[in-house]
Amino acid sequence: MMAPVRGISRYFNQYRLSNISAMIKNNKRDPEECKTRFDKKLVVITGSTSGIGLYTARKYAAMGADLLCINRNREKSEQVCNELKENYDIECSYIIADLSSMTETKKIGTELANIVRPIDVMILNAGIYMTRRRITREGLELVFAVNFMSAFILTYLLKEKFIRQKKGRILYVNSEGHRFCPWGLRVDDLDFTKRTYSGLSAYGSAKLAQLLCLLIFAEEFEGSGVTVNAMHPGAVKTSTGKDNGKFYTWYKKNILERGFRSARISAEALYYLGVSGKVSEINGKFFNLTTVEEPAPPARDREAADKIWKTVKELAHFV
Predict the structure, then answer these.
(1) Alpha-carbon distance 78 to 27, whole Å?
(2) Residue-level pLDDT at 63
């Protein structure tokens, strides 16, 4: 219990009711819209066969962008690409990968880093929610592997390509769910072997880890013409959590998501953040849709960022 106690004493006085009220207010806002077209620009999106990723792919395609989709399901990827090419007369291709696997993710990252064409926007959207603990073949907790490690690995491996381009925007589909980890990240227990697993804690840990590493990636991109930011996609209906059984699926649809909005608002926000000139120089920030918002205190802890950065680099064998 020592780590949580230290976390309470470290962060308690940093919490402000004004931040919570701002979050609630921002959740009700509509995103800013961008009318600028993105013709012949290349956009990479992970998890684009349903939900936020699919709506986002359609939005970018409707505005003229070419798409490179990274998904797990080949048949659905084929359907999405055919739809986008037929409806919007753009180029669309896909790469099949299991982003819970560090090995596969590193392979994809290396492949993307070697393409000649500049990547104008990379949207790291792939994510899952699990109610029960599952461990990948490489020994990572599954939610942590998909929601955080895949995005970390891809950003890390593509960092030099983006810097050479001298332009580009990287967007993490993060979440207000990082607040489910209110007393900080348990770097000593990322796989939940020392404490009881809960879906909210695992989800919050992955999203918090992403915001902490965002601090360091933002520093490394500073002055390069490249930006990296994170965003909460709004309270929207998605297919996340569909692998948790019939009861959870019913509960999510009829209770949790009652009153939630369409994922179209997430797509509008991701287009604005990827294209609008109004945010072209904003780097290292957390947005609630298109409004800059201060994340929870543990997500602003630079010392904690250094610890998780070192840990995940070792996990990915980057050191």
Answers:
(1) 34
(2) 98
Short-list 75, 312, 145, 74, CA closest to 213: 312
How much is the mean pLDDT over the chain? 92
Q: Is 13 helix (H, G, I), strand (E, B) or coil?
A: helix
CA distance 232 to 259: 17
Q: Directed axis angle between helix 199-221 and helix 150-165, to 10°?
A: 20
The position carrying tokens 């990479």 is 44
Question: Alpha carbon of 251 to those of 134, 143, 236, 242: distances in Å?
Answer: 21, 20, 15, 11
SS (H, E, C) 135-165: ECCCCCEHHHHHHHHHHHHHHHHHHHHHHHH
Query: Cα-flanking dihedrals φ and ψ of residue 126, to 5°?
Result: -55, 135
pLDDT at 20: 87
Q: How far are the Cα atoms of 42, 131, 231, 274 from residue 283, in angstroms, in the given order?
A: 20, 33, 12, 12
pLDDT digits (tens, 9 = 90+) for 63-80: 999 999 999 999 999 999
Q: In whole angstroms, what is the distance from residue 71 CA to residue 84 CA?
A: 15
pLDDT value of residue 258: 52
Residue closest to 190 by CA, chosen among 224, 237, 246, 152 = 152
Statement: residue 253 has pLDDT above 70: no
Express each pLDDT in 6-16 by its tens digit.
678 899 999 99
